[in-house]
């Protein structure tokens, strides 16, 4: 596997490196936002659900637009550079927020940056590698992405331990954001021909039937996959200190970084749908455990580490399976639909989770997420299972 890993094209490694640097900035702040929201801006789970849900929903349409235009023009780089530029500018401005609606505005800008770059980046990555190594390539991308997600929280924890206020920690995100923008300028196009004859088609029925079924399954899972910030809020509720919350997320990202490459490569051999089904069921088990068995100490750290296994088994594999199912000239559009579904469904997912938590209990909220994941796993291996000649 190591020989195949180091034989991957330059563009695959560069896209992964950019994600590493970007996530070191993003994840340095990500675990701190719910803490800042509750302890400084004095808002609770409902506000958190609205912020995360609206931020994703507002940006969701752009995820499809950028993917379609990347297909039509054959150019992904301008969208990627613009996306990283917008996000790199928005994140440090969180240091100057004094009310939660302004935090919502900056989160929307950050998510717009992600929306603009996500589908073209994934399409460029898929075009850079053959189908037999697609799981390995997307696994490497997720491994480097999650490595950045380890570095970021560790930096945040170190700064907090040194007595740096939350607002000033946000300012540190400016440096990796600028480095990420410079690296993205060195990307090269895949050489795929443009498709000017293909009109911008927003119709769902324009996608292949099997791809539509797969996207619906992903949508059901995403309905239960609310913002990870609720996990941080749950950890704080269980008595974890503010300085330790970033360490929990660093543990998740470290496990995901270590396992993304071997599990992504495994999907090239045993089938992506099988591995994805196991990942969805693992997610359901994790959320049930967070509802009923979590407590401060080693058990909570073990649960968060198990969540890293779920991420490694699903994040890259979801995208690799989509690339398998999408025609080559529709990959940008297909990734646009995937990201559109992620963004659009996260609004009700986060809002429902927040209302269930405050209106009933944390157990109801986490149980709802587990039920959605279980349903998605069952549908993936029956109704939406890839047909003959495609990865099962």
From TrEMBL:
Protein name: MFS transporter
Domain of life assignment: Bacteria
Keyword vocabulary terms for this entry: Membrane, Transmembrane, Transmembrane helix
Sequence intervals crossing the membrane: 79-106, 214-233, 245-263, 275-294, 300-322, 334-357, 363-384
CDD domains for the chain: MFS_MJ1317_like (cd17370)
Domain Major facilitator superfamily (MFS) profile stretches: 11-388
Annotated organism of origin: Roseateles paludis
Gene3D superfamilies the UniProt entry points to: MFS general substrate transporter like domains (1.20.1250.20)
